[in-house]
Design brief:
The chain is mainly alpha-helical. It is 47% helix and 12% strand. The strands form 2 sheets. The chain has a 3-stranded antiparallel sheet with strand order 3-4-5. It has a two-stranded antiparallel sheet with strand order 1-2. GO terms for molecular function: DNA binding.
Length: 198
């Protein structure tokens, strides 16, 4: 794992993209819908309580046709009513979700993931427990939570890929810098090495 921080009241974990793939694979062995939930959190940055909102009706190609967006109704970090935002979705995630939707006969207005927030959180814990069985450091996996997928997504894009903060605030649903600042974690050793080698 990139890093585990257990200095506060809540243990925080950051997953490498390869580790996220392991979590998705474990989820898929239980049910394809679980894999979709992991992808929405770990590859698109949705919160656990946002996963059961979008479906085919909320997915669209950008105006220039160069990327996918999915509309999400989520937390308003300034308080008040939930807020709509467009979340970027990669081509490969879109392809998997579209195939899932077709094969599961989801109607246009139906959500892809049809489960409660508590079920989505439980799926993450169960998948992490399965991954831990074959992991070199299994105790680290017992701390992985649904929010760690969003945290890993944000940190990967902000720190490793150096996506600008304004873009991340827009697609991640953060209303101000203070809300996104905790996601600006330390870079990984791999990133430091690549950057310093020039």
């Amino acid at each position: 794992m990139v890093r585990v921080d257990d200095s506060g009241e809540v243990t925080k974990c950051w997953l490498e993209p390869e580790e996220l793939s392991l979590l998705e694979e474990a989820a898929a062995r239980a049910d394809w819908q679980r894999e979709i939930a992991m992808m929405l959190m770990g590859r698109c940055g949705l919160r656990a309580d946002e996963v059961n909102y979008p479906g085919d009706a909320e997915l669209r190609r950008s105006g220039k046709g160069d990327c996918w967006f999915v509309e999400v109704r989520g937390k308003n970090t300034q308080g008040g009513d939930p807020k709509l935002r467009d979340v970027w979705m990669s081509d490969d995630v879109q392809a998997v979700i579209r195939r899932f939707s077709r094969e599961r006969d989801r109607e246009t207005g139906e959500a892809w993931v049809q489960a409660s927030n508590s079920s989505v959180r439980r799926w993450v814990k169960e998948s992490a427990k399965e991954v831990a069985q074959d992991a070199s450091q299994p105790d680290r996996w017992r701390h992985v939570s649904s929010h760690d997928l969003r945290r890993s997504w944000a940190t990967y894009h902000l720190v490793e890929r150096q996506v600008d903060v304004r873009t991340m605030m827009s697609i991640g649903g953060w209303s101000d810098y203070s809300a996104i600042e905790p996601y600006l974690a330390e870079p990984t050793e791999r990133h430091i090495g690549a950057t310093m080698r020039g």
